[in-house]
Amino acid sequence: MTELARFGVSMDEDMLQRFDEYVARRGLSTNRSEAIRDLVREVLAQEEIGNPDKEAVASVTMVFSHHAGDLIEKLDSIEHDFFKLIISKVHIHLDAHNCLEVILMRGPAAQVRSIAENLLGAKGVRNGKLVLTTIDE
Ligand code: NI
Predict the structure, then answer these.
(1) Ligand 1 geometric centre to CA of 59 (Å)
(2) DSSP bridge pairs for 131
(3) CB contact at 8 A, 128 and 61
(4) 3-state DSSP call for residue 92?
(5) Ion ligand 1: protein residues whose beta carbon lies under 5 Å
């Protein structure tokens, strides 16, 4: 059996409280460590899915503040770099500061995933999610 490794995780208290509520709602995991292990397993499994060249369609949903540094320019430049794979985008001004953006892509799974990681990893993107699927029956 593999040895268990321990590591510390820092997050703001509000997020931690919401995470604990999520863990409690699930009912299955008895503690944070189990819940985090489940989430990591899920992410790794999701990443292993499929052939990197497989045609994929994906949406990237992001929430960010348009005051966050040069974020808007950064996102724009990524989108221009990959204009052939990015087929559509919706930008909604949520309030005076916050924006919601949904970007739709179509192309080889690995490339689509890498663009999504670039977008979601841009400094200032607060919440985001990639949903990637294929068009196979
Ligand atoms: Ni906006």
Answers:
(1) 18
(2) 59
(3) yes
(4) strand
(5) 66, 93, 99
Q: What is the pLDDT, as a whole number, of residue 30?
A: 67
For residues 30 and 24, give the distance between their C-alpha atoms in angstroms, rounded to a whole number.
8
| Three-class DSSP category at 112 | helix
93 C-alpha to center of ligand 1: Å? 4
The pLDDT of residue 76 is 92
Mean pLDDT by 10 residues, the chain (137 residues): 86 93 76 85 70 87 89 92 96 95 94 92 90 77
pTM: 0.68
Pairing of strands 98-108, 86-93: antiparallel
